[in-house]
Amino acid sequence: MEVLYVPLFLKHKKQLYMDIPCMFLLLSGVLFVHLSDSKAVDTIYANQAIKDDGDTLVSPGGMFELGFFSPGKSKYRYVGIWYNKISVCTPVWVANRETPIADRTGVFILTHEGNLVILADGGNTKIWSSNSTSSTMINPVAQILDTGNLVLWDNTSTNNQNLVWQSFDYIGDTFIAGMKFGKDFKTGLEKHMTSWKSPDDPSQGEYIHYLDTNGYPQLFGRKGNDLRWRIGPWNGLGNSGLPIDTPNPIYTMEFVFNQEEIFYRFELNTSIILRLQLAWDGTILHTQWIERLQQWVVFADIGVDSYNRYAVCGPFGSHNINRRPLCSCLKGFEPRLPDEWEASGWSGGCQRKRPLDCASGDGFWKISGVKLPDTRQSWYNVSMTLDECEMACRRNCSCIAYANLDIRGSGCLLWFNELIDIREYDVKHNLYIRLAASEFSGNKISQLSYKQKKGVLTVVLSIISAALLSFAVAYTCKKKRLYMKRRGIWDTLNKKNNSVQMEDTDDLPVFSLYEIAKATENFSINNKIGEGGFGLVYKGVLEGGREVAVKRLSESSKQGLDEFKNEITCIAKLQHRNLVKILGYCIHGNEMILIYEYMANKSLDSFLFDETRSSMLDWPCRFQIIHGMARGILYLHQDSCLQIIHRDLKAGNVLLDADMNPKISDFGLARKFFGSDDTFTKTKKVVGTYGYISPEYAVHGKFSTKSDVFSFGVLVLEIVSGKKNTGFSHQDHGDNLLGHAWRLYKENRSIELMSASLRDSCIISEVLRSIHVGLLCVQHHPEDRPTMMSVILMLISEGVLPEPKQPAFFTGESHGGVQSVSSADEYMMTQLYGR
Asked: Which residues, at least 6 apart from 157, have a Cβ–Cβ distance to it below 8 Å?
């Protein structure tokens, strides 16, 4: 080590060599030494210093590094901690956020009194201090740990290390594994996130993300003094307004609430590098470092927009992003300002239609699937049952709503003030709202206690049984009316000579038939670029030179008006880089036409299953396509303003732009969805493409988000192998592609599934991980399949993956005790898929 002013006392060396000038300086009181040894160290002792000339501390395992740095394009110098093992300088903590140094004269030193300080101007100006000085400090030691935490110990003996100060107590804009996000009641220390002012300026920005401990604790975000978002309280499994917190194989979220402290913390289950960042623009980003890409990949974000703003609908208003308008009043309530309800931005909220009358017996209305209202003024009990919670609310006439704390059925929350910031979400929480007895139109069931309701059950079942016959008759009549209605719509369209504006598409341009015909040279066969179940697809050039794809419904198409409308109303509201963008539509007479952005490389199947063109898809390109498809499906399932199940994911419906980026297309069969990942919707009309349809959908007509997960898994295996699932054959067995992939996996020969054209470009670990994830997605039972969020995490992580179970449509012998599908299901699947 190089000596600065005085030589460094080596950790366990008793002998010290000094020359006369150094001894003079020591006696003069210049007491700090500087590190510049080529060997990385993780610890500094009293009066040791780190200068801004390349000195750093590196954690024992090499994960984190501490030293001076300049963020982005800034020329100012800061002391920070960043990831040592990645190529992009990514700070997770900054000491002197508000007091940068303009030059390289800075020194970071641990004083003998146990204080970490940053000095500038040759040690003459104090820039920052940890303020951890203690009169009882004996042997101060500062160490950077592999968690990224800078800790200050009072190392009084080998077995006695007393923690004095730690950087984890002072979170900046980044939240990493092991940090506690919350409040220490003993010290009063609040641990929250604050954004940077800009990407190049780590000083405190406009946004703060914090845990509010008033009432039942919940997460909030502010921009200055303006309350911007509320993620909601802990529901036993995660935050009620943060779907990403649902259990997954990558990390585990924990919520601790006791008399000493309250905090959130997450721990990684794998060796991935994961962080949460409050960006300078107020967006909370969940990112993971991907070594092979040498970049941070955002796999989830919480945008602060009109959908996430706090209390958008005002008191007693309910917010649903799948509805237009976004806001509505709760049952028993009406707009306070009905004439200005939508024009005022709904902020006026709602008021009761009828006043409560506790003495005569009010009732409770159950609302399912909501983010619970603001709990800052709520009362709570963690041990009460739902029955006890209901009785507590009934006995107090000021109580206006109650709910379980934990979605698994325990704890009690009571509200006594206006219900604010209710959002209809994909969560399993139920909220019970107090209403006047007259709101139930004479039906007293909702007013009864839980035990009284059981007594009514027998009568209700009898009524239901009697109603079934009437329902059958009514259903037949409804089918007939629906048929006549569709005939009427078609007749109306056929009589129209001009374009017809469709509902819910006010922002979508309407093209005239003349414009489309001109763009496609009157639908010239030379401009034909594709053909599908909807009809022919043409390349067109609009005035101004923009290239478009024109999809024209043919008279022989199996799809019709419903699919046409569905395509427009679904995709028009969706905006994502991995979804094809619709530019407009045209209805003229019996002509129905859709106009999309033009995809230069057409569809994935035109490359994947063509012996010549498949060689153009090397492994990096294929893996990019897999990841892009996953991001697009995740957006449909979770992040879009409409929760969508595509129902027809296949290689032909994945389009490729000029850079081979995938974009999911063809939403004619898509359906809006209002349940959780394991909630099913049932239909008697099974649509889609054989080879990609999940077993529960093919056999029983049940579909959910897990149906799309299954289709995605088929696509992954097709992309890796270059073979189609349907029509696949092998000389050794009669299974389809899924069964073949399963056999190879069980024999530890999965790499043999890979297309031979990928041998020179493949990354073996990525190929094997993709096959593994594909098999997880095509498991027979939907509850065994991962969510798309977990799929993305597994694709980009490097940790151990769960073992897949036998896939659907596997017709061979059972392996390792894994049972095959039922004989009835197998017969039906054979008819659909073949052997």
From this structure: none
Give the SS3 label for residue 267.
strand
Catalytic residues: 648
Contact 233, 404 (CB under 8 A): no
Backbone angles phi, psi at 333, to 5 degrees: -125, 160
d(CA 210, CA 196): 15
CATH classification number, 605-833, choose in 1.10.510.10, 3.40.50.300, 3.10.20.580, 1.10.8.60: 1.10.510.10
Per-domain boundaries in the chain: 1-170, 173-310, 357-447, 453-495, 513-597, 605-833
What separation in angstroms does the CA of 134 have from each of 47, 116, 738? 15, 12, 66
Indicate whether 763 pLDDT > 60: yes
pLDDT for the residue numbered 756:
92
CATH annotation of 513-597: 3.30.200.20
Strand partners, 255: 264
What are the residues facing 263 on neighbouring strands? 182, 256
Two tokens at 508?
A: 């979508």
Where b means 16+ CB within 10 Å and e means fewer, 311-347 reads: bbbbbbbbbbbeeeebbbbbebbebbeeeebeeeebe
Q: Which residue has the higher pLDDT, 175 or 450?
A: 175
**What is residue 335's three-state secondary structure?**
strand
At residue 469, the pLDDT reads: 55
Predicted confidence (pLDDT) per residue in 355-409, tens digit:
998 887 889 999 988 889 999 999 999 999 999 999 999 999 999 999 999 988 8
- Tokens encoding 489: 């719509």
End-to-end CA distance of the chain: 72
Q: What is the mean pLDDT of residues 73-93?
A: 95
Give me the architecture of the 173-310 domain, per CATH.
Answer: Orthogonal Prism (2.90)
Question: Which residues lie below 8 Å from residue 130, measured CB to CB, with a gap of 6+?
Answer: 115, 116, 117, 152, 165
| Contact between residue 426 and residue 676 where contact means Cβ atoms under 8 Å apart | yes
State what percent of residues in the chain have pLDDT above 90.
48
With b for 16 or more beta-carbon neighbours within 10 A and e for fewer, the 570-596 pattern comes to bbbbbebebbbebbbbbbbeeebbbbb
683 three-state secondary structure: coil
The torsion angles phi and psi of 580, rounded to 5 degrees, stand at -65, 145
> What local confidence, expressed as pLDDT, does residue 471 receive?
63
Contact indicator for 602, 616 with CB cutoff of 8 Å: no
The number of beta carbons lying within 10 Å of the beta carbon of residue 465 is 9
In angstroms, the CA 150 to CA 19 distance is 34
For residue 29, pLDDT over 60 is answered with no
Q: What is the pLDDT of residue 138?
A: 81
Strands (E) in 213-358, as ranges, are: 218-223, 226-233, 251-257, 261-268, 274-278, 284-290, 295-302, 317-319, 327-329, 333-335, 350-352
Cα–Cα distances in angstroms (integers) from residue 497 to residues 551, 554, 562, 584, 590, in the given order: 20, 18, 20, 18, 9
Integer CA distances (angstroms), 181 to 131, 265, 296, 403, 546, in order:
21, 6, 23, 25, 50
Q: Which residue has the tokens 């109650």?
A: 402
The helix (run of H) or strand (run of E) holding residue 136 is none
Report d(CA 53, CA 39) in Å as an integer: 15
- Token output for 247: 């259990």
- Mean pLDDT calculated for residue range 804-825: 53
- Whether 173-310 and 1-170 are alike in CATH topology: the answer is yes
Nearest-angstrom CA–CA distance, 108 and 713 = 52
| The length of the chain, given as a count of residues | 835
> If one looks up domain 357-447 in CATH, what number appears?
3.50.4.10
Q: What is the pLDDT of residues 706-758, one digit of tens each?
A: 999 999 999 999 999 999 988 787 777 778 899 999 999 999 999 999 999 99
Model pLDDT, residue 777: 96
Q: In CATH, what class is 1-170?
A: mainly beta
